[in-house]
Write a structure and sequence with these properties.
By secondary structure, the chain is of the alpha+beta class. It contains eight helices and 21 strands. The strands form four sheets. The chain has a six-stranded antiparallel beta barrel. The protein has a six-stranded antiparallel barrel with strand order 8-9-10-13-12-11. Strands 15, 16, 17, 18, 19 and 20 form a six-stranded antiparallel beta sheet that branches. A hairpin with a 3-residue loop joins β2 and β3. It starts with about 25 loop residues before the first helix and ends with a strand.
């Protein structure tokens, strides 16, 4: 059309050639080299990530508490104390006989016949060897549950040179699960220990860790992870059966295992000389077994009966106790409630008194019913709350307390760190006055 110019022919404009660049296909060699490079890079980055995790995991585990897989709860049934005549040796009752013709009376009582036979029997060395052979076999079976603990402490000398201090202690296996073995040992074995090695009867040594400890009794529970241990070896480390110390009587033959001579895996035999009943210790009354037997409380000495059952462990003597060559042992029956908590990794609650229940004679003198505080232990929860010697505890956390059994059961069911209301009666100038205290439950 006239007057209209073709834009392609406008002056001042140039036309350029446009091209689309297409990459040439990769050769097989190039594809192989690129794939190999990717594999090497993946392996390198994976290795770096693995090393980084291995280095950082202990630091993270140390500062951040990672919840563990829930472990099965260990239950330790309690023993009921025998009362009165029931403490004497039980005699099986005879079935009632029908009122028929009476049997003929023997010419001599059976007891007399047996006594005469025993007195006239001439024992031989063979009889003695057979007796001790049977007892030795029982001790060998028990020894499979006795372990040696190596407590290692890392220290430095005056010149900042590293020094490793090692102590040897005895312990006994008291419970087991699919994941762990639980060992009772003196608290000194784990106190200030940087690492713990546990050696079993077959010589196998494994790492141990503190499960829980009780500063009042001076005992601790150590856990050994056995998830990777061979099944046959795990069966060999068989836990000791927890016996009933209420059934122990004067004159019973007992065996000391652990470190009675001060050396690990030593043993000794002895007899029970005396049973101390209602012995006041912190937060409970207990029975103490006194025996003339070798014992080293610091290294760990445990008492078993002739059935191979654990009935107690030797306690260190009190500073004011006379040294009469008698070993004093804590009976296990009064400790089973605390032991159940320790084996499950729970701190045992502490109230912090030594006391006794108000007797009828004391009540006749005008004392209220409850627990008479003989000693409010220094720096323990009751003492810190203001409870004093001579106070009478009548209620804890709303529960009436009239006997030591009430008191012990109530304390056993308290939670550490919990604030509880405690009602006491305090002797005033003319009469007892009711006072209330807030006690924060501690840990043993």
């Amino acid at each position: 059309m006239p007057g209209v110019q073709d834009p392609k022919k406008e002056p001042g404009k140039r036309r350029f050639i446009t091209e689309k660049i297409v990459r040439r296909p990769l050769t097989r060699g190039e594809l192989f080299r690129r794939g190999l490079f990717l594999l090497l890079a993946a392996a390198l980055f994976g290795g770096v990530a693995g090393v980084s995790f291995a280095v950082s995991q202990p630091l993270v585990a140390k500062h951040i508490k990672v919840p563990e897989t829930e472990r099965p709860k260990i239950s330790i049934p309690k023993d009921e104390p025998l009362e009165g005549a029931a403490e004497r040796e039980s005699v099986p009752e005879t079935a009632p006989q029908a009122e028929t013709e009476s049997p003929p009376v023997p010419e001599e009582p059976v007891e007399k016949v047996v006594r005469n036979a025993m007195e006239n029997y001439r024992y031989t060395v063979g009889d003695l060897n057979e007796l001790f052979s049977s007892l030795r076999a029982q001790v060998q079976a028990v020894s499979k549950g006795v372990v040696t603990l190596h407590s290692v402490q890392q220290e430095v000398d005056w010149f900042d040179n590293p020094v490793e201090t090692t102590g040897l202690y005895a312990g006994v296996v008291i419970a087991s699960t699919e994941q762990e073995l639980l060992i009772l040992t003196p608290e000194a074995a784990v106190e200030r220990a940087d690492s713990i090695k546990v050696m079993f009867a077959d010589g196998v040594e494994m790492d141990g860790r503190i499960k829980q400890q009780d500063t009042i009794s001076g005992m601790a529970v150590v856990s050994v992870d056995v998830s990777g241990m061979e099944e046959s070896r795990r069966r060999e480390a068989k836990p000791l059966v927890l016996g009933n110390s209420y059934l122990v009587r004067e004159g019973d033959l007992i065996v000391a295992v652990g470190s009675p001579s001060g050396m690990a895996r030593s043993i000794d035999y002895g007899f029970v000389s005396y049973i101390g009943k209602n012995v006041q210790i912190v937060d409970q009354v207990t029975r103490m077994v006194y025996a003339r037997i070798s014992a080293d409380a610091g290294r760990g000495t445990f008492l078993v009966n002739t059935s191979g059952e654990l009935i107690g462990w030797v306690m260190p003597p009190e500073p004011d106790e006379e040294n009469n060559n008698m070993a004093k042992a804590m009976g296990i029956s009064d400790y089973k409630g605390i032991l159940e908590k320790l084996t499950n990794g729970l701190a045992a609650p502490c109230f912090g008194i030594e006391g006794q229940e108000v007797s009828e004679a004391m009540a006749a003198q005008g004392l209220p019913n409850g627990i008479y505080v003989l000693n409010s232990v220094t720096e323990r929860p009751a003492y810190d709350a203001g409870i004093q010697n001579g106070d009478i505890i009548t209620h804890i956390d709303g529960r009436e307390i009239t006997t030591m059994k009430d008191f012990q059961n109530t304390v056993d069911n308290l939670e550490c760190g919990r604030l509880v209301n405690v009602v006491v009666q305090r002797n005033g100038r003319d009469q007892y006055a009711k006072l209330e205290f807030q006690v924060t439950v501690g840990a043993r």
